[in-house]
Amino acid sequence: MKFSKLAVFFEKIEKTSSRLEITRLLADLFKELSPEEIEKTIYLLQGRVAPLYQATEFGVAEKTIIKSIVLALNLDKRFFENKYKEIGDLGKIVESFKKEIHSLEEKDLSIIEVFSDLNKMAHSAGQGSQELKTNILAHLIRQIDPISSRYLVRIPIATMRLGFSDMTILDGFSWMIAGDKSLRPIIEKAYHVRPDLGFIGRVIKEKGIKGLDEVKPKIFTPIIMMRAERLSSGKEIIEQIGRCAIESKYDGFRLQVHYQNNQVRLYSRNLEDASFMYPDLVEAIKKEIKVKDIIFEGEAIGFNPKTGEFLPFQETVQRKRKYDIKAKAIEIPLKLFAFELLYLNGKDYINFPHEQRRKALETVIKKTKALDRRAILLAEEIVVEDEKKIELLFDEALAKGLEGIIAKKLDGVYKPGARGWNWIKFKRSYSAKIKDSIDCLVMGYDSGKGKRADFGIGAFLVGIYNEKVDKYLTMAKIGTGLTDEEWREIKRRCDKFKAEKKPALYEVDKMMEVDQWVKPFLVVEIKADEITRSPVHTAGREMKPSKSGLALRFPRLLKFRDDKRPEDATTLGEVQKMLKAQAV
């Protein structure tokens, strides 16, 4: 397919506010693509040339894009910059100039040709790389048509603004084959093991839906992490899963470790390659793990090297940084408590019961009764069948400064990306007020007034996830309780992902619309006093007998959850359970 035809699809998708219509457009596009084209097109749809988990970035700023456009079209730089200040969209500006200026170099390039040049841009590094990137992009701009140029320049600076999620692409695959989303569960199961949309698309194109049965874990491709359900008493846990394994829940950050040939990569919950942030853990894994290859999960938590005590999350989280990494590693060393084995010495353990996964993990990481000098430790586990013992273990975990406990079903398999009863978080009863926090997606914000006019933000809209329909539903608009620095920080983060219109994945009442929409990316942890009914929020509106939605009473920001993807936000089902428990 020619890139010019792909650009027409981009334009149709950009103009569409219906998620279902976007899904159909994607399906129509996918039908016309070859296996190689679908793989590369999906990366381009995401504004990339590689899967999201690969740290392959273009490494260019807006000024580089401007320089390329000016060079390609022989424009006066000052004149162009004035136009940019006026319009504010590099894609629309270059399109308008291309309509007026025709180059002798114009060609109808293929998707493969454009992708190849963009790939060269992304992988160019070292001395002279910025000049090379500028020239590559300028050459492409000269060759393509106006609409194509609009989307081309948006790709390197991640401003495609097409307004759909990974789940919409999975539905697009299903519609391509079956004309509906009936195949989504099969496709999603494979995607959770190999979250590379380009790869999944290519497999489907080459081998059909049956080809996904062959999808297995791959070292250095992160597996989407399994999630837990929540219950509020030992009695409920025993009634749900019976005799079970109890593990401490450490208040740190979850990492998935991939090791092979003395190479280590550490992936966060949102699939980010975080290896460079934790050089101490990388070296410890190389030193302490003696296997051919392995994928396992653990929780990293900071500790005081003088006392051996665990540090609170607020201190541990300081290790998540891009600068002064070595100094901070000395100040706040980490221990990684391994709790799940997914792959070992070429063998896939995902579908093995918990007891077998645990035994295999114990052959790699030995048990220890007390914290020793090793950095990679085995999470403590006790098998119980007494509800009172579960309550006691929970109290003991809190006394140690831990977050709580996790109960694991002994014959339960590991379900990538799924939230199910194979894992259960123990949380105290919500009773009259909810004591648990809620992970919400920031959907947009209102401009500030008075003192907050200086911040440019006065309130922000948050919502939860309805995974059944791939929609985000509002639960609160938060306008109080933040420090000046937190207001500045949330504004800074939101402005990186501004949306020109309400994203198709958002379901928002007109009363709750905001001054500036934000694309799905930022998850925040919110604390509230209770869940109440609200006529202006959309979460749970389908619940009967009331058509009112659900809202958070006295919501306040606890922290930013950079380790979570938008799809990891608290689900509508979880909130409904909280509401039910609250009424008891």
Determine and state the CATH class of the domain at 227-426.
Alpha Beta
Residues in helix, %: 25-40%
Q: Can you give the mean pLDDT?
A: 89
Low-pLDDT ranges? none
* H/I helix tally: 20
Alpha-beta classification:
alpha+beta
- According to DSSP, the number of beta strands is 21
Under the CATH scheme, the architecture of the domain at 227-426 is: 2-Layer Sandwich
Q: What oligomerization state is this entry in?
A: single chain
Largest sheet: 8 strands, mixed
Summarize the structure.
This protein is an alpha+beta fold and 584 residues long. It is built from 20 helices and 21 strands.
Can you walk me through this structure?
This protein is α+β, with helices and mostly antiparallel strands and 584 residues long. Among the domains are: 227-426, 2-Layer Sandwich (D-amino Acid Aminotransferase, Chain A, domain 1); 438-582, Nucleic acid-binding proteins (OB fold (Dihydrolipoamide Acetyltransferase, E2P), Beta Barrel), CATH 2.40.50. Helix content is 37%, strand content 21%. The protein contains 20 helices and 21 strands. Strand 13 and strand 14 form a beta hairpin. Helix 1 runs antiparallel to helix 2, helix 3 packs antiparallel against helix 12 (197-207) and helix 13 (234-241) crosses helix 18. It is globular.
Question: Which descriptors apply to this entry?
Answer:
6-stranded mixed beta sheet; 21 strands; 584 residues; alpha+beta; D-amino Acid Aminotransferase, Chain A, domain 1; globular
SSE blueprint:
Layout: H1 3-15, H2 19-31, H3 35-45, H4 62-73, H5 77-87, H6 90-100, H7 111-123, H8 129-143, H9 146-154, H10 166-178, H11 184-193, H12 197-207, E1 227-231, H13 234-241, E2 244-249, E3 253-260, E4 263-267, H14 279-288, E5 293-302, H15 313-316, H16 325-331, E6 334-344, E7 347-348, H17 354-364, E8 376-378, E9 381-384, H18 387-399, E10 404-409, E11 419-426, E12 438-446, E13 459-466, E14 471-478, H19 484-495, E15 498-499, E16 506-507, E17 516-518, E18 523-527, E19 530-534, E20 549-553, E21 556-560, H20 572-582
Parallel strand pairs: 1-11, 6-8, 14-16
Antiparallel strand pairs: 2-9, 2-10, 3-4, 3-5, 5-6, 6-7, 10-11, 12-13, 12-17, 12-18, 13-14, 15-17, 18-21, 19-20
